[in-house]
Amino acid sequence: MAAVSTSATGTANPVPSRSELWADKYKPRSIAEMCYPVCANKLKAWLETFTPIGSPGDDPKKPHGVLLSGSPGVGKTTTVYVVAHELGRTVVEYNASDFRSRKSLKENVSDLISNRAFSVSATSYTNVILLMDEVDGCDIGGVGEVIEMLKSTRIPILCTCNDRWHPKLRSLLNYVEDMRFSHPPCNIVANYLCDRVLAREGISLSKPLLQDIIKNSGSDIRNMLNNLQLWCLSRTSLEQRQLAECAAQSTKDSDAGLFDAAEYFLLQGTSRGERHSIAEMQACYYNADLVDMFVQENYLHYNPQPVDGRDWMEAVSQAATSISRSDAAQSIMYYQQNWSVSRFHVLSSSIAPCVYTRGKYETFMTGQQKFFDMQRPVKFPTWLGHNSSANKNRRLLRCIAMQASHPAKGVSGSQEDVVADYIPHGWERPLTAPLATKGKDGVAEVIAFMDQYHLMRDDWDLVQALPHYKHMQSPSPTTPPANIATAVKSAFTREFNKTHRFDSFAKSTLKRGDGETQDDDEGDPGNGAGGNRKAGKVVADGVTAVSVTGSSDAAATKKKGKAAVGAATTSTTAAAARKPRAKKSAPADGAARPTAKKKAATSSTRATAKASTAKTTAKRKRARAASSESETESVSSSPSSSSSSSASSSSSSSDVSDSE
């Protein structure tokens, strides 16, 4: 048992124990002892109104679980145990050290969430809480099984995670109440440590030094307590200078994403963040191209407090002027490659607008305040989405103008003419009205109209979207957008994909069987099959066949050339077959002579070879006849080639006679 000392007033104070960790020793036992009990009060109120599934008064729309998200050391697990202790409930925890795959959860947990007796100390399901710690680290299928448990649970299920935006948790967020833990302000943490920990341990620290320690640790209370205990144990007396050096050496690494950097700028000086110096904000500048876009998207949603007689409109005007100057500086950086103005760009694009407009979050958009309370307080820049849609529409418009410019049926205008005249006045109604009025029966009519102008499926989407843009611009449009059912669109897409292929407009090159290339435009005079072009030479095994020029048929020329090549190939094969076979030497004395089976196999092989030679001879005769016809026609146009062919033919004839 730990020793106890009695103070002058008679109250018992525990003597500090050097073996116990301060993080466990000063762990809060009630909500009143917590440093920042905002989320603890919310969780307590939610648990008090929890009703099991299937019980009277159960609201099916209300989630039966809570997701507690926040960085490590912020107090998520401690909050669950403190609230459960105050409500007199038992916590059954499954953390990262347990097997939490789909199979293990189904075997160990799924059967227990419907039982009345969950543990020895729990007599009914009303006093039990299931804690799934670090649910973002579950094994394969674990998160899916947790979702199935939430659909049929009779006890509250609390889940904790470090990264709320993890892809695993996207589906889980639809079934739980979202509670986000944030780091408490620096001054609150400093007062808490001084009153609850340092005073009891007999350590005196100045507030500025303690705040530096808190900033270096990222407001991680558990990390702070461990570092302070380590420094005090290593030295009997610790001076302020030594403690400052230790605090600088133990700076905690922080992972800051793009949203974190934007929040760092926009929320500084508000209820969710503290003010920072210009040097600190420059050090946290994350992305020179996107952070300023976040600021421009969100700075109008903050209502600063009046300072020195300056109202909200004046503050917004100064912020807009600063953003305009930053745009000019960015142009100098990129177009003139003058990067010396980059510091001014950071100051005027992100730091100055946030300094001018920091204050309470107030939005002009309906429902945006709830988004700020429940989700991220920073909106993603909508310019990126609009720019992507604009680029896609430009690409589709360019494709429409190219495809529709058919010499017989197409259009003859430019892209501006297509978007200003053809689409709104000529294409909009024929492409959308049949589907809206006739349903699936109008699919064939729409496809036939699209074939007239060579339109694709993406072009139809663009034509359908344009009336919606007009409807947004005009409060009372003359022709409202056509309302087409989803089933009709699906039927139209299937029918169009079934009957159309997406071919390129570029000329395709066909490969002939003999290695020669042929263009698509074979019928053109002078270049096609009927033109006066000279065919290329075909060379094989030293024999050249020259095709006929003039108005003769190219197909016949190609056939004769192939016949000459066949004759040359046959001649080469015959020459190879004409080589005499080497005589086999007689077996040496004592060697085994061939058996009867080997002799029979040898005679069978010889018979097969004779039959193959006879077939080759017949083919050679037919090839020689075709070659002689080719020579007769080639003499009139090319004497030299004729003599060469004759020589080749005579050589082939002599080879054939020798073979015979």
TrEMBL record:
GO terms for biological process: DNA replication. The keyword Transport does not apply. SMART domains: AAA. GO terms for cellular component: DNA replication factor C complex; nucleus. SUPFAM superfamilies: P-loop containing nucleoside triphosphate hydrolases, post-AAA+ oligomerization domain-like. Residues 62-187 form the AAA+ ATPase domain. Keywords: DNA replication. Residues 507-536, 550-660 are annotated as: Disordered. It comes from the Eukaryota. The keyword Oxidoreductase does not apply. One of its GO terms (molecular function) is ATP binding. InterPro entries: AAA+_ATPase, ATPase_AAA_core, DNA_pol3_clamp-load_cplx_C, DNA_replication_fac_RFC1_C, P-loop_NTPase. Belongs to the activator 1 large subunit family. PANTHER family: CHROMOSOME TRANSMISSION FIDELITY FACTOR 18 (PTHR23389), REPLICATION FACTOR C SUBUNIT 1 (PTHR23389:SF6). This is Putative replication factor C, subunit 1.
